[in-house]
Structure formats: C-alpha cells, structure tokens
Specification:
By secondary structure, this protein is of the alpha/beta class.
C-alpha cells in the first residue's frame, strides 16, 4: 500500500509558528537567522524567555489585524530558545521569576511569587550534543544522504530558507485542537492519519502547568473523540498516554495497545535513582481498529 500525504496541518494557539513563517516568507530570513545564530548562554536564555512571554499576549491579535505584520526578533529568539531550553514550559508564561524595575533605574529578574506572566529559571542544554541553534538536525531537502546537517556548518540564512520551503506545505490553524479534527479537514479528503498526543490527564499524576495552554481534561476529550471516530474506515488514529488513562474504554472498543519505553529522559539527572525512568515505562500507544497490523508494512511518501 502506498500512502501519500498532500498536506500537513498544525495548530498554532499563540502565533509563534505563524510569525516565524511570515517572517521567512516576507523576506526577513536573514534577520531571523541573525537573531537565532547565538550560542547557548543561560543569562540570555532567561532574559529572552521573559521578553518573549511579554510579547505573546498581543502577538496573535497583531498577526490577525495586519497581514503584513511580523517580528523577526520574536521569530529568531523563539526558535533559538526552543533548541536551548530543557523540557517543557518554553514561553508558557507560568513561573515565579519576573523582571522588576529597581529604584536605581535598572531591571532585574527576581523571584516574586506566582502572579503575572513570569517564567521558570532552569539550566539550559549544556551537554556535548551541542544544543541551541548549532545542534545537528535532520536533512530537510529532497536530496542528500539523509545524515542530517549542522546549522553552524552551513549558512544560517540558507537553513532558514530550507525551513521556509518546508513550511510552505503546512496549513496552520489557530485555536482549539478539535477545530482541526472535523470531517472537513480529515476524511473528506480521503484516508487520514491522526496522531493525538494530548497533555496527560489528571490521573497521570503530573504537574498542572507543563504547557503554555494546559488542561488535564484535554486527554479525556481526545479519548471521547477517538471513540466517536475510531470505527471510520477512512481514519487511522493513534492516541498517546499512560496505561491507566485510556486502557479500559479503548480496549472495549477494539483498539490495540502498544507498550513502549520512553527512556529516562531528564529524570536521569535526579539523585533519586530508584525512580529514574519509571514514567517512561508507563507510555502507551492506542491504535484504532482500522490501523494496519504491525506485520503489514506501508510505503509512505510525503509530498
């Protein structure tokens, strides 16, 4: 069987993706590259993170109000920070650290409680993998050996142009996830694959503020959608979660479960070695009834 994906669809709830694409498309790739071409520096990470959080409040409205509006500085610092920041929470706007104006006219990042649009301070990537804009990335073009490229080994402007070319095939919506899972944007176009990786539910025993827009009900809503659409022969659906979240209702509806190990991740840095990697072993994938059996390979072509 040969499967061809004609479009990619993303949901951009805060405008950062839309701003990044618009900057590249409107001829600002060199400026975006200049802001993104920066080594990993903890002081810069905290300062830029806080600055970006302040811009996020109005970014979506400005993008919608002016078709020519874009901010290359936001785009460059945003993509640089994604690479330098550890774990979740980049630009979430949640955290106890705020920039405070001092009596002497200076501004300092201080821990002043949980109110307002703050950030969390945490160590950036410092390992030998070379995180940040210089880390190794997969091959983005149609040719090449597929062994990846190093952003610092090519012109960063060229790399931004490659990203712009890749994003030309992506359709970006802004809003709730369910808006891009309806009939008009899925199986009306034919055989459709849907991969759902929602924030894990309340019973997953996780923090409340992992994502910029977070809610422990989303996993339940996603499961409800899966149960309503799983028997559609034109839908191939995969839902991610911990076993205790979805096992019983999905198994009763004929969904297959695959257990996998996500590894220790950043928990390997803990001193509590007894619990390192425990959550990684709880990861599960649920496959809808019309997903192909694992012993039946599928040739995939991305157009």
């Amino acid at each position: 069987m040969k499967w061809q994906a004609h479009t990619d669809l993303q949901n951009d709830s805060d405008g950062f993706i839309s701003n990044f694409w618009r900057c590249l498309a409107l001829g600002h790739a060199d400026t975006v590259a200049r802001y993104a071409d920066w080594p990993v520096n903890e002081n810069d990470l905290h300062a830029r993170h806080y600055w970006l959080v302040q811009q996020a409040a109005d970014l979506q409205a400005q993008l919608e109000g002016d078709p020519d509006y874009c901010d290359p500085k936001i785009a460059g610092w945003w993509v640089w920070g994604i690479c330098a920041y550890i774990g979740s929470g980049w630009c979430s706007g949640r955290g106890p650290w705020h920039a405070v104006d001092m009596p002497d006219g200076t501004r300092r990042l201080m821990k002043v409680g949980n109110a307002g649009q703050g950030i969390n301070r945490q160590l950036p990537h410092l390992g030998n993998a070379g995180r940040g804009i210089n880390r190794q990335r997969p091959q983005l073009g149609n040719g090449g050996s597929g062994q990846g490229i190093l952003a610092h080994s090519i012109d960063v402007y060229e790399y931004m142009c490659q990203l712009a070319n890749r994003l030309r095939r992506v359709r970006v919506a802004s809003g709730d996830w369910s808006r891009v899972c309806g009939r008009a944007v899925t199986y009306n176009h034919g055989l459709t694959g849907v991969f759902l990786d929602p924030p894990y539910a309340a019973e997953a025993d996780r923090a409340d503020d992992l994502y910029r827009k977070d809610c422990k009900r989303i996993a339940h809503d996603a499961r409800k959608w899966c149960l309503e659409n799983g028997n559609n022969p034109l839908m191939r659906i995969i839902l991610c979660g911990y076993e205790e979240e979805h096992a019983a209702p999905l198994a009763a509806a004929g969904w297959r479960m695959i257990a996998w190990d996500a590894g220790a991740g950043y928990s390997a840095q803990r001193h509590d070695t007894e619990n390192v990697g425990v959550n990684g072993k709880r990861e599960r994938l649920w496959l809808s009834p019309h997903c192909l059996p694992l012993d039946r390979p599928m040739q995939a072509t991305l157009l």
